[in-house]
Design a protein that fits this description.
The protein has about 110 residues and is mainly α. It has a domain of about 50 residues. About 50% of the residues lie in helices and about 5% in strands. Strands 1-2 form a two-stranded antiparallel ribbon. Helix 2 crosses helix 3.
Length: about 110
């Protein structure tokens, strides 16, 4: 199969499943990936990202095939913006903590 045929056949759902499989080392049904499957899936994911990735995450392949690296400060700003955007709160997010729960809730 050539690259263009592979990328045309790969839907966002297939991309996400392959990405999860590479991250976890197993397919959605629990079958472990062989080293060859992991390598092939990773190459396919990078090719897909190089064609479709509009918002490249830290250390990924941006659209056009360029490697994208984001600094820690850039990532913190993005996470803070996400937190503000989802909560509807315009107060600046506290980047020093992840979550706080009262001790009596456990």
């Amino acid at each position: 199969m050539d690259v263009d045929t592979l990328l045309k056949a790969m839907t966002p759902d297939v991309y996400q499943r392959m990405s999860t499989a590479v991250e976890l080392g197993k397919w959605p049904d629990g079958t472990p990936l062989t080293p060859e499957q992991r390598d092939s899936a990773l190459q396919a994911l990078m090719l897909y990202q190089s064609r479709h990735n509009q918002d490249a995450a830290h250390m990924s392949v941006a659209k056009g095939g360029e490697m994208m690296f984001k600094s820690k400060a850039e990532l913190q700003r993005e996470f803070a913006d996400d937190k503000i955007g989802t909560s509807g709160d315009t107060e600046k997010a506290d980047s020093g903590s992840i979550a706080r729960f009262p001790a009596d809730k456990f």
